[in-house]
């Protein structure tokens, strides 16, 4: 993705934004999902339940096929 590591963008759920402005929060998540789509990502993995929830909402808003999963769930899947 264009913005990663230190330059990574927030998913939109942080700092209470999701509670304050749901639509703005989802729009930010949509933008992050679109960035992942641009590089043909199939999965967005996160350790944060707030990010997971918001990114799922963003993906649903744009009908994205990207899976948003918790890192632990992704690890568990790989062990099967």
Strand residue content? 5-15%
Please tell me the overall pLDDT: 94
- The end-to-end distance, rounded to whole angstroms, is 28 Å
Q: What gross morphology would you assign?
A: globular
Percentage of helical residues?
40-55%
- Please give the radius of gyration in angstroms: 12 Å
Run of helices and strands: HHEHEH
Strand arrangement across the biggest beta sheet:
1-2
What is the number of beta strands?
A: 2
Query: How is the main sheet built?
Result: 2 strands, parallel
Overall structural domain count: 1
**Low-confidence region ranges:** none
**Structure annotation, total helices:** 4
The structural class is: mainly alpha
Provide structural commentary.
The chain is mainly alpha-helical and 80 residues long. The chain has one domain (5-79). The chain is built from four helices and two strands. The protein has helices at 17-20, 22-38, 49-61, 71-79, and strands at residues 43-46, 67-70. It has a two-stranded parallel ribbon with strand order 1-2. α2 (22-38) crosses α3 (49-61).
Descriptive tags:
mainly alpha, single chain, 2 strands, 54% helix
Topology (SSEs and partners):
Blueprint: H1 17-20, H2 22-38, E1 43-46, H3 49-61, E2 67-70, H4 71-79
Parallel strand pairs: 1-2
Helix pairs in contact: 2-3
What is the compact description of this entry?
54% of the residues lie in helices and 10% in strands.
């Amino acid at each position: 993705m264009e913005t990663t590591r230190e330059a990574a963008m927030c998913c939109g759920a942080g700092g209470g934004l999701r509670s304050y402005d749901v639509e703005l929060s989802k729009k930010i998540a949509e933008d992050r999902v679109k960035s992942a789509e641009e590089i043909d990502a199939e999965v967005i993995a996160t350790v944060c339940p707030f990010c997971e929830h918001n990114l799922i909402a963003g993906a649903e808003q744009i009908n994205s096929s990207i899976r948003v999963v918790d890192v632990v769930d992704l690890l568990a899947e790989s062990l099967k």
